[in-house]
Amino acid sequence: xxxxxxxxxxxxxxxxxxxxxxxxxxxxxxxxxxxxxxxxxxxxxxxxxxxxxxxxxxxxxxxxxxxxxxxxxxxxxxxxxxxxxxxxxxxxxxxxxxxxxxxxxxxxxxxxxxxxxxxxxxxxxxxxxxxxxxxxxxxxxxxxxxxxxxxxxxxxxxxxxxxxxxxxxxxxxxxxxxxxxxxxxxxxxxxxxxxxxxxxxxxxxxxxxxxxxxxxxxxxxxxxxxxxxxxxxxxxxxxxxxxxxxxxxxxxxxxxxxxxxxxxxxxxxxxxxxxxxxxxxxxxxxxxxxxxxxxxxxxxxxxxxxxxxxxxxxxxxxxxxxxxxxxxxxxxxxxxxxxxxxxxxxxxxxxxxxxx
Length: 356
Hints:
The protein is α/β, with parallel strands linked by helices.
């Protein structure tokens, strides 16, 4: 795929895999979730059950390789590699934005992962602005074309206003998500892209009948930072705006806890989740599952599938260890274990009008 959109996708991949685009001074605040140790768990590691049910499919562990890419030949290679890993390991897998499919029919092949992931949970992806301009039947066709089990409608106004060629009008997005929730035959998730779902957005989504969210909170990859890097040397005003907003957003721990309290049926915690301990902390805050994106991509670039698998082995090993050490036989029990929250996380939750 060539042209402006293809070049942008290529830039995104390169910067996420090799660039310095993490949050600078904002953390996920997952480090402020402390779980209480149990010296007498009366469990064996081998009997721990990591399985969860998500959108009608059973995952072997509460993990989703989260939405990243699509639309270029390199994106196809990455999607096939990561989808194959998700299939083999029993995880979910998220596709990147399918806007390229709408603009260029030849880009469709870069999203078709069912040949390597015939049974995995696969989530389609479309931007909220594009969803607002697209009939439900046409969105359904995008989902059907990739054989997806659900659709993420991504919300990224902070990224877009810094992106030199980004969208500027975000009206109608909430109505579009509500419409698709009613009319599509698959689950619809409202998904942020690194700035988190705050209390105002959570209230609007719940009132509109939305049942599933992917919080994608602050503290991991800054997509404002990605666009700031892209704007350098091209659009000085956008670069300056991006520098000011680089750390903008609601930390992942805050967004996870408030969305769980808001009563969403599904809360996927993404945004800076980089270890099994992070996964455990997110689950203890009420997440249904956790999503990992950039760390898996970086491992894949560093050492191919073997290195990505080694990274994920470590994530699972840490998660199992934490479950044993808090006496949680399964994920449902882990979601209910006692925890101690640090002062910054408590301040954020108080400001959001919620308590975890």
